Amino acid sequence: MERKVVSLQGKELRNIELSDSVFGLPINEDVIYYAINNELANKRVGTADTKTRGQVHGSNRRPYSQKGTGRARQGDVKSPIYVGGGTVFGPHPRDYGWLLPKKVKRLALKTILSLKAQNGTLAVVEDFTVESGKTRDLVKKLEAIASNAEATRTVIVLGDDDAEVKRAGRNLPWLSFLSFNRLRAHDLFYGRKVLVLESAIKGLNEFYADK
């Protein structure tokens, strides 16, 4: 599969080969679901906590006499039926994360890349950097190839860990950066526009090639 490399001015420069084993797979919705669900579950903090009646600080006295009132007998004011009492079956700190097989994760990422390549939301862009590390310089570079980007969730896949580019875009809510060897299924799938640098294409072809 071939794709045009686009310059920052939006002009087509040359062709680049996209590996069919990475960008030409059939769409497998199941593995995409599992990969995204796994990432979201692993990000959950799980610190919610409630107190049972045994943990609530309070008196052990009965709210009224057990006999002679005609009412149902009560244990103490920490009972769950009273305001300020304990909570029944409430949440406690726990780990929501679970393991996803590496092969399933790799297949999901390759499937998402194939999906983006097939539906036309993936574009290959020539390598660039932002020497100043300033946001306005990055936005100016992206104007031609990512028009109306502020209204569209955009993902840039980098060939290397360019600190200056990441610094320039870290305060743009519509933009996120991924390295070719550390992709995230959630960000990649929900990116309405995926810009892959030319060096990242070569890295993806090698890193996710079938072995």
Give the SSE order as H and E letters.
EEHHHEHEHEHEH
CATH topology (fold) name of the domain at 2-31 and 101-207: Ribosomal Protein L4, Chain: A
Q: Kindly report the spatial arrangement of strands forming the biggest sheet.
A: 2-1-3-6-4-5
Taking pLDDT < 50 over at least 5 consecutive residues as the criterion, the unreliable ranges are none
Shape: elongated
Structural class: alpha/beta
Number of strands: 6
If you compute it from the alpha carbons, what radius of gyration comes out, rounded to the nearest whole angstrom? 27 Å
Largest sheet: 6 strands, mixed
Quick tags:
14% strand; Ribosomal Protein L4, Chain: A; alpha/beta; elongated; 6 strands
Care to give the gist of this entry?
This protein has helices at residues 20-23, 29-43, 102-118, 135-142, 163-169, 185-190, 198-207, and strands at 2-6, 12-17, 122-125, 154-158, 175-179, 193-197.
